[in-house]
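fold-stage: in
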Amino acid sequence: MQTPTPQAEDYLSLHGIHKRFGAGGFVALQNIDLDVRRGELLCFLGPSGCGKTTLLRIIAGLESQSAGTIHQAGRDISTLPPMERDYGIVFQSYALFPNLTVADNVAYGLVNRRMPRDQRRARVAELLTLVGLPDRGGQYPAQLSGGQQQRVAIARALATSPGLLLLDEPLSALDARVRVRLRGEIRALQQRLNITTILVTHDQEEALSMADRIVVMNQGAIEQVGTPAQIYQRPATPFAADFVGKTNMLGAHFNGEGELHLGGVRMRCAPPPGCCADEPVQVFFRPEDVCVRGLEAHGANVLEATVDKIEFLGAFSRLTLRLPPTAGAAPQSCGTLYADLSLNDLHELRPNTGDLLRVAIPADRIRIFRHA
């Protein structure tokens, strides 16, 4: 079968990437088709063991694929060794040389390319200024903080002016405050240089805040590719819905006429394609979608639920609510849902555990997934 020709706007194209470790062994990746646009920051997001780092290493040539092709800037790099591919890489562990100064670490790739000494010095000075460390060239990695070491690793990866930047969980070893600050700096730098970048992470907030597009991965396959807003607001699969952000995922029955039976409540929804009458489905909506103000008892999609738990989370509080049971069902079989309430909502309603709280779930916020 002929491999499709990459489109002009796609900088990196992967087709049919498959990875099996050993004869008859573990399948880490299966049938990965993916196009990376020139100048975008694409994020591989998924749980540990989903294949995201293996895919990054295959792009880098540090692992070989069992099948499939890779094109970069129109060139087939499927079988090229790492040194013949055009990329810079930053590892989770930074991988700086402890016996070399910061300047020598940054210049390492330039020395291997036999760049003249004066040009090397100018390039290193330019890069250290770019990452905010203009006066640290003479220090050693051990004299720097974790965030500063990561900046040095980024400068080293950019030294040879690669067309592709690969970031393998670059912020996971840093504390939360440094991580937030550095992810903003990395994103700003990537946009300033307009360098095509692939970021591997399991941190949802990191992916949502940094990426132009996110590739959600699970068990060696791609679940969904989309912008952060698309992934969060319109997940394509139950896994994508459940993995990215806090969610309500409840079992229900669809009656075939745009109506759900959720616990002891009937709710209107957009008819899901292909669903049959009385088919069991999964109902998805976000905690912030739940409305609590100005509700009439017999309004659309209004129900009363019991407050089981209230968690104060700073800017909002998350309530765990117990749904009314289906007629004849045991109370312990009831479903639960989460509702995020603003401080103003809390002040007005003053809910306590054990209270009945009237809530509504707008029909346009409900997404239905058929059972596999």
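fold-stage: in (second)
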Amino acid sequence: MNIFKRLFHSRYKPKIKNSLGSSVFGSFLSSSSSGKTVGQTSALSVTAVYSCVRILSEAIAGLPLHTYKYKNSGGKEKAIDHPLYILLHDEPNPDMTSFVFRETLMSHLLLWGNAYAQILRNRKGDVMALYPLSPNRMTVDRASNGRIYYTYSTSVDDNPKLKSKGQVYLKAEDVLHIPGLDFDGLVGYSPIAMARNAIGMAMACEEYGAKFFANGASPSGVLEHPSTIKNPDKLRESWNSLFKGSSNSHRIAVLEEGLKYRPISISPNEAQFLETRKFQINKIALMF
């Protein structure tokens, strides 16, 4: 049987007893204390999160990966002729190199707290390929006999041979599962979920900073006129055209006809804006 036709194919139908779930801090889309919705994808918009995930993933993927065998005389040597050597060192599957494969799994581990890969075997039981699985579509369960199994929600995007969507049950021996920090040894906690308040605060700070400069760093306040203004919208548009935006900040305003400008905003330093951003970035970096 062609290995591609066997992708996600399983006749395993476990008798469900209870569900371990994917960890209470697994795949989620939750609102933080700052009001920002934090998820694995949206968290990557924070430069600190993206940098940590990229640097750690590339560092792990770049490490040498070899299979070894013990020698009768003692010591060990590279087992280049071992069937798993090519899979681990060169090409886990026809679609990606070992570097890309490990980089993908490491990014999953950092974002979701779990990394999964399906182990494809031939009829003899030999490992033929390893394919990464999306953690947000994986659930870990326990059957009535106490054995762990995996439920994966498939998609037509996973494999061109797969014609319909649905759920596939995979045995524990058919899944390479690398859990992150956890308390049960089965399913890891998502670092993004654990740090959602810090990440949400960082997202809010970046949004505030972007809007602050977009609306004009200075001047900013209220225009006062001793009498009634016939066309306040025109005056506002004229003022914004001269002073709105970071490129127009700190320009000198010339006021006429008794017009007065009263500033009402505070500077980023006074609001400890820069210090807040640095503090949140340090907190995020410590999580990784």
